[in-house]
């Protein structure tokens, strides 16, 4: 991110620290609980948001070489992501075109030249072309070119693979979709990082509850008192809207020593954590020497799947390096686990009927932005 923004963020944090304030939104937001419990609302989200936008679906570093692949169902579709021979990313429905069996059962693998269906061995190359089928002559004049794997549009940015889960749509224009924040992210160099400690976590709460936990720091002092709270200033954050996305800055206690100092040339990563939220469900927390990524996929109204990983600059070469990353990653996931437990308790609370709405205060306003973005996306 540019130096002027970094300096401005630090100056703003110091002003807040002095005045005992934080960034605030215009208004308190009330949100209906039905948005977290209604199957109809969830169906609208699925059809109008999660099938229409580029959705983060994996990490480029997992598909470093041609023939490397991953599979999952997190987008509600059986997905096969594979690095093509030309170095591009191929996203396919992981479904055989003969009679529809799942083509690839393995969750990941490398260096494949082709994928052979376990049912009758129809075989496809990494670009999805149907290469061969046993007893081909008995299928008459089968048009092999028309029986390649069904492709979904996909593109990559800053080490994340985005898939538009809608066949026949155009390749997503990530410059347009991600906007100016894409350049910030590219500046962090995450596209050259490697994946460390990938995790998949199922939670019993609506996906939005997880997102909201990342969009405010009001809770940090209390919910994270045993983990990360001592590292951060209490409720001092910078919050900037780049609708439908946002970037936030959670200021650490180290920033106190900057009082009265020149701020030019300082790196914000040394004094707090920038957090990037890309609508609808991608959060990247930028730490001093790495980043942690959390993609929250809706499953049902009251459940979701987290696809998470740390992105670190290079594979650890020594025990000492491994211990460093293990320690860092543990701090992150320990704190996240506190958020997850809270999120599950919130969902149980919704089910109790105690609240028909919830309230986001003025310094929880990125949560309001998030819901506004959702409303807008659902209307289009
Ligand atoms: S279903 Fe795949 S080869 Fe028959
Ligand atoms: Fe948290």
Structure characterization notes:
- It is a single chain.
- This protein has 380 residues and is an alpha+beta fold.
- The protein folds into 2 domains: 3-52 and 191-379, Naphthalene 1,2-dioxygenase Alpha Subunit, Chain A, domain 1, CATH 3.90.380.10; 55-171, Rieske Iron-sulfur Protein (3-layer Sandwich).
- Helix content is 28%, strand content 29%.
- It contains 9 helices and 20 strands.
- Strands 13-19-18-17-16-15-14 form a 7-stranded antiparallel β-sheet, sandwiched between helices. Strands 6-3-4-5-10 form a 5-stranded antiparallel β-sheet, with no helix packed on it. A 3-stranded antiparallel β-sheet has the order 2-12-11, with no helix packed on it.
- A hairpin with a 2-residue loop joins β18 (291-300) and β19.
- The longest helix is centred in the C-terminal third of the chain and has 34 residues, at 319-352.
- The radius of gyration is 22 Å and the shape is globular.
- The model has no long low-confidence stretch (mean pLDDT 96).
- The protein binds FE2/S2 (inorganic) cluster and fe (ii) ion.
- Fe (ii) ion (FE2) is lined by residues 213, 219, 223-224, 335, 339.
Short account of what is shown:
The chain is an alpha+beta fold and 380 residues long. Helix content is 28%, strand content 29%.
Strand content: 25-35%
Number of domain modules: 2
- The share of residues in helices is 25-40%
Structural class: alpha+beta
CATH architecture of the largest domain: Alpha-Beta Complex
Strand segment count: 20
Largest sheet descriptor: 7 strands, antiparallel
Give the overall shape, derived from the CA principal axes: globular
- CATH superfamily heading of the largest domain: Naphthalene 1,2-dioxygenase Alpha Subunit, Chain A, domain 1
Low-confidence stretches: none
Mean residue pLDDT: 96
Tally of DSSP helical segments: 9
CATH class of the largest domain: Alpha Beta
From the 3D structure, determine the CATH topology of the largest domain. Naphthalene 1,2-dioxygenase Alpha Subunit, Chain A, domain 1
Termini gap: 31 Å
